[in-house]
Amino acid sequence: MTAPPRAPDAAPALQGRMALRVAESPSAPAQSVSASFELSGHEQQGELRLFSPLGTVLALAQWSPQGVTLDSGQGPQAYANLDELSRSALGESVPLAALPSWLKGQPWPGVDVQWEVAAGASGGPRFWQADWRVDASRLESEGWVEARRELPPAVLLRIRLDR
């Protein structure tokens, strides 16, 4: 699958590796996904590319006010929103629109936030949004961000950004 090139004036993409783990539920077995990624845009418009270890694009999710699509090699599929896309592709809703903000250590705009007092030497932000605990305390020092949802089924998303 060939992904369309980004516009030359687009903000630099965030790149790294992500690992997603969804706990077992009464209706589905536990599952995990790990891939390299490139993320560009913001909560209203953006794209997320997932890559194989050899650099082949495995999936391309794109969203804008005009719609949400996922192309995983069999042609693009349209979705009503990013929650529907993540439920279909990952088996559970993951706030993909929040990732551009969370990976910068910032809350998702327009969504209530509760701040935690950061512990440890790094002092990076930790906060709660939409039932997710976001820990960006290691973002500056090591490039790590972790988002965790404890509600069943529990979901853990760990991301390490390339420097």
Automatic annotation (TrEMBL):
Transmembrane segments: none
Disulfide bond found in the keyword field: no
The entry's keywords: Cell outer membrane, Chaperone, Lipoprotein, Membrane, Palmitate, Protein transport, Signal, Transport
Pfam families on file: LolB
Topological relation to the membrane, as annotated: Lipid-anchor
InterPro entries documented for this protein: LolA/LolB/LppX, OM_lipoprot_LolB
Location in or out of the cell: Cell outer membrane
Homology family: Belongs to the LolB family.
Description of how the protein assembles with itself and partners: Monomer.
Name of the protein this chain belongs to: Outer-membrane lipoprotein LolB
Source organism of the structure: Ideonella paludis
